[in-house]
Amino acid sequence: MTPFEAVYGQKPPLHLPYIAHHSMVDQVDRSLQARESTIRLLKHYLQLAQCWMKAQANKKRSPRKFETGDLVFVKLQPYRQMSLKGHSYHKLNPKYFGLFKVLQKVSTVAYQLELPPHGKIHHTFHVSQLKKYIGNIVVVPDLPVSLSTHGHIVLKPEAILDRQSVQSRGKQVDQVLIRWFNCPEEDSTWMDTHSLSQQFPHFSP
């Protein structure tokens, strides 16, 4: 589905390129010329916006290149459950795991890694998820036990550290501070008690 279909509920009209003096009606011909001018202008500004966004994104990026046999860390993001409100998973920082050997270069921005046998995720990663290891200390490669097939850390509540009551949309909402399995205490997050019971019905602190 295109954005046009999502907004207007129908397929976008077919655009036929303007042909000079194709219409015998002068008003129609001028209308077609104006439409072509508008389309060219829109494409121009879209291109400018894309270039600006690319330039802004590249300011925070550094060129990364790996060779076969290099050891790297892999950045994995905690799983985000978007179907329920009140979650604070976005506050958890991505974690690096490793070390893993680079098997081959798939493309200019993707590399295939040698993962442990129990790793149930895809072996190819974007360069933005990789960090080269510099050193000579041998580290046993490992991945988190709770890992989804998409490479996200699946969070599970371990304990409730604190409780509070806050105002949300004019209502009093009870929240609990959750410590997650395999996460340091500083990554604990506040969560609505209602969302907690929905997402983890078997959790009993």
TrEMBL record:
Chromo domain segment(s): 157-202
Superkingdom of the source species: Eukaryota
Domain Tf2-1-like SH3-like: 69-133
One Pfam assignment: Chromo
PANTHER family: CHROMO DOMAIN-CONTAINING PROTEIN (PTHR46148), RETROTRANSPOSON-LIKE PROTEIN (PTHR46148:SF54)
Protein name in the entry: Uncharacterized protein LOC104237253
